[in-house]
Amino acid sequence: MSKIIDIKTSIVKIALKRTFTTAIRSTNHIDSLVVELTLDNGTKGYGVAPATTAITGDTLQGMQYIVNEIFTPVIKGAYLSDYERVLHQAFNRVMFNSAAKMAVDLAFHDLLAKQKNTSVANFLGAKNNTMETDVSISCGTVSETIQNIQNGVEANFTAIKVKTGADFRRDIELLKALDSEFNKSTKFRFDANQGWSIIQTKQFIEELNKYSLNVEIIEQPVKYYDISAMHEITQFSNIPIVADESVFNSSDAKRVIDERACNMINIKLAKTGGILEAKKIKKLADEAGIPCMVGCMMESPAGILATASFALAEDITIADLDPLDWVAKDIYNGYLTFNEPNIILKDNLNGFGYNF
């Protein structure tokens, strides 16, 4: 039985090709924590997670402290085969800190797959290696947004996630411009990132219904904690409402399901703290007949690989995993291929297939 004998952490920064702006934040780089676990047979497992302070509250320094000082005493010396109990015990030592938990969870899954000489996707039960993603369009002026969407369409993306919520007047003006520039072959997903009020959300939906746009979803229109508002909007809207920041864990998922506060749940590993909790959310959603999509922070390709592996195993087909479009391809070409809009996991990966 393999035992974990060492844990190390390091920090990786990746430059973006262009600035990413939402209603919550703006950034031109990706900050990530890398967790390295070593087994007594020398096998190493790696997990990577982003520091998205505005959303999860995690900072790089805080993540390192949590892993090194809070999780390590539980994990070091533990047997890999006992991973579910070990992760449960470690993660229960501290509230929140979902990104730090994600990095550790993924390092465990990397080792578990390597022990079986297979990829993480196959270990989780995936039957294929390809999935389609949308492309996210940052908040900007109407003309900037139209141009960026046109660039996305020309790059073969069929689904476009439009960031809204920073300027409501601009959001309303944008609809008319979209209707005049694009036909129903382009699928739109609007993400307000908690930027609207109930009244604004209803106004946006009413305005949207004046046009013939092909709209798939409206994501997290109001504050994450306002579940009653999410319920009211979900009952009002003829367009599916997605809970994103309102759902970090399975308890959150149960609440929005019980209160009928969404039509879909966006699962992100940086919110759930990794794959184990993500699977619990998916199970609850399946039992309630509520579909799930997968999303991500602006995070490293290593994190995108982990989310794609989970999604392929869970037969989730709606994906917002486009940070690959924001970074240089040589960062990830050892384990992923990105043929816009398709993410393709490389064949014969051992674990996740990356090293640091």
Automatic annotation (TrEMBL):
InterPro entries per UniProt: Dipeptide_epimerase, Enolase-like_C_sf, Enolase-like_N, Enolase_C-like, Mandelate_racemase_C, Mandelate_racemase_N_dom
EC number: 5.1.1.-
Pfam families attached to this UniProt entry: MR_MLE_C (PF13378), MR_MLE_N (PF02746)
Domain Mandelate racemase/muconate lactonizing enzyme C-terminal span(s) in chain numbering: 142-240
Note describing how the cofactor binds: Binds 1 Mg(2+) ion per subunit.
Family: Belongs to the mandelate racemase/muconate lactonizing enzyme family.
UniProt protein name: Dipeptide epimerase
Organism for this UniProt entry: Francisella uliginis
Lineage, highest ranks first: Bacteria, Pseudomonadati, Pseudomonadota, Gammaproteobacteria, Thiotrichales
